[in-house]
Amino acid sequence: MPATLLATRRVEKPWGRHHLYPGFPDAPDGAGKVGEVWFQPPEPEGAELLVKYLFTSEKLSVQDHPSDEEAHKRGLPRGKDECWTVLTAEPGSTIAVGPKREMTKDELRASALDVTLEDKLDWRPVKAGDFLYCPSGTIHAIGGGITCIEVQQNSDTTYRLYDYGSDRELHLDDGVAVAHLTPYRPIESPGQVSPDRTILVEGPKFVLERWPGGDRSVALPDGRTGWLVPIRGEGVVAGVAWKAGECVTVTGSERIHASADADVLFAYTGDTRIGETAS
Fold first, then answer.
1. Residue 271: how many other CB atoms lie within 10 Å
2. How far is the C-alpha of 113 from the C-alpha of 163, rounded, in Å?
3. Percentage of residues in the chain with pLDDT exceeding 70?
4. Residues of 157-182 as b/e, b for ≥16 C-beta within 10 angstroms?
5. 160 assigned to active site
6. So what's the pLDDT on residue 216?
7. Phi/psi class of residue 137: alpha, beta or left (left: φ > 0; alpha: ψ in -120 to 50)?
8. 17, 160, 210, 273: which is the annotated catalytic residue?
9. How far apart are CA 212 and CA 262, in angstroms?
10. C-alpha separations of 229 from 43, 63, 83, 149, 155 in Å
11. How far apart are alpha carbons 260 and 244 in whole angstroms?
12. Are 87 and 147 in contact (CB under 8 A)?
């Protein structure tokens, strides 16, 4: 099918929330906290990307993920590069990305065990509209009070390095082995390339664009799928209606109709953007 409205999967997390975000029903009082909403195609294991919303009330564990190469060594299909588009952030909200200074593997392991790792990370303040790309191997932790959209390689492999003294299992052997031990350096992105097209990520694993409202055409090469993620507004593609809080996959050449107030993310695999769209 040229366009498919994806099913949603609500995932309860101890760091999640009952009050979510416009477009998502709140979790009932007395129910578990919702930390994530995943968008899943009919055969989710075959998808190359995964799109999800995150709703945090407290810090997530300090963790990292393997690269494709490290994943293949472990018999896994792919690694996990990911990125976050921040929709809301309470005052003082932060995301940790990388250590403040270069570390050794021995120091990383020791800091995870003696509960000093948290203080050695680069906790960056974030606000609505911010964007961070997190390559595989980056030591990171998302703080509390944040709503964001995560676009990632379709992998659920997470190595927990530190969990603030809780009794949850750590994965120090794998987590230390794949970790980047130097301070985080953002990957340069092209940014706004036309009045109605901003490139947030251009490879190596996927491209992520952000569009304002209005109609446009997309032409995806054979074998490539696009993920349309409306932050605001509504529209139609290939006869499939969509609105904020949903996600639609698109294949082939299609005309996307978006309301004037729309704000849309569009992701697809590869390291090169598709040709300029036409309004």
1. 11
2. 10
3. 99
4. bbbbbbbeeeeeebbbebbbbbbbbe
5. yes
6. 95
7. left
8. 160
9. 6
10. 19, 26, 14, 9, 19
11. 13
12. yes
Instruction: List CB contacts of 10: < 8 A, sequence separation 6 or more.
Output: 27, 34, 36, 37
For β-strands 140-142 and 34-40, DSSP reports them as unpaired
Asked if pLDDT for residue 279 goes beyond 80, the answer is: no
Question: What average pLDDT does range 74-94 have in this prediction?
Answer: 97
Please report the sign of the dihedral spanned by the C-alpha atoms of residue 159, residue 135, residue 10, residue 166. positive
Three-state SS for 177? helix
Taking the C-alpha atoms of residue 91 and residue 47, their distance in angstroms, rounded to an integer, is: 36
247, 51 in Cβ contact below 8 A?
yes
Neighbour count for residue 130 (Cβ, 10 Å): 17
| Contact indicator for 22, 231 with CB cutoff of 8 Å | no
Amino acid occupying residue 96 = A
Give the pairing type, strands 263-269 and 225-232: antiparallel
Question: Which pLDDT does position 180 carry in this prediction?
Answer: 98
Could you tell me the CA-to-CA distances from 70 to 50, 78, 79, 82, 205 in Å, in that order? 19, 9, 7, 16, 15
Instruction: Name residue 83's beta-bridge partners.
Output: 133, 151
pTM of the model: 0.96
Non-local CB neighbours of 167 within 8 Å, separated by 6+ positions: none
Query: What's the CA gap between 241 and 142, in Å, rounded?
Result: 32
pLDDT digits (tens, 9 = 90+) for 38-75: 999 988 889 999 999 999 999 999 999 999 999 999 99
Mean pLDDT of all residues in the chain? 95
